[in-house]
Amino acid sequence: MSKASRVKGHGFERLVARLLRVTFPAAARGLQYQNPAACDVEGTPFRIECKRLKKVNTADVVRAIEQCEGDAFNWDDTRPCIVISKEDRGKIYVTMKLDALLTTAERLFYSHPDEAKILPFPNKDNK
Questions:
Q1: DSSP for the chain?
Q2: Is the C-alpha dihedral spanning 121, 123, 126, 127 positive or negative?
Q3: What tens digit of pLDDT does each residue of 61-119 get?
Q4: How far is CA 88 from CA 1, 93, 117, in A?
Q5: Are 9 and 18 in contact (CB under 8 A)?
Q6: Over the chain, what is the mean pLDDT?
Q7: Residues 6 or more apart from 48 whose CB is under 8 A from it?
Q8: Given a cut of 70, is residue 123 above it in pLDDT?
């Protein structure tokens, strides 16, 4: 990996941390050289892997999710793994496995069944 690629990747990690700070005030770029168990962006309920590439394809995202899950396994990190990716001059996308989405939804909406605020599924009657 060239120095320019590393700089581009680190800049993207900083951008993601800054954007996530609105919702997660503790969000900051993870510094793996100080803490090998850190992910790319710390301070959120997710284990985040950031990828900033010239052209993002499905294989890149799958490899990133596998890398994130492998790191999570090695460091006993139970947070759901997500990949945040961006192509040159492209939009930012978030990718996660379905089981990670379902785990997150369960934690958010079903942790206290008596207090759950379930939104009704939209149909003709309640748009």
A1: --HHHHHHHHHHHHHHHHHHTTT-TT-EE--TTT-TT--SEESSSSEEEEEEESS--HHHHHHHHHHHHHHHHHTT--SPEEEEEEETT--EEEE--HHHHHHHHHHHHSSSGGG--PPPPP-SS--
A2: positive
A3: 999 999 999 999 999 998 999 999 999 999 999 999 998 898 888 877 776 655 555 55
A4: 17, 12, 39
A5: no
A6: 86
A7: 16, 39, 40, 41, 68, 82, 83, 84
A8: no
Tokens representing residue 14 in the block:
């900083």
- Give me the residue spans of the domains in the chain: 3-103
| Residue scoring higher pLDDT (123 or 67) | 67
Amino acid 90: pLDDT: 93
Pairwise CA distance, residues 26 & 42, whole Å: 8
User: What token pair was written down for 41?
Assistant: 């962006």
Considering the segment(s) 3-103 as one domain, its CATH architecture is: 3-Layer(aba) Sandwich (3.40)
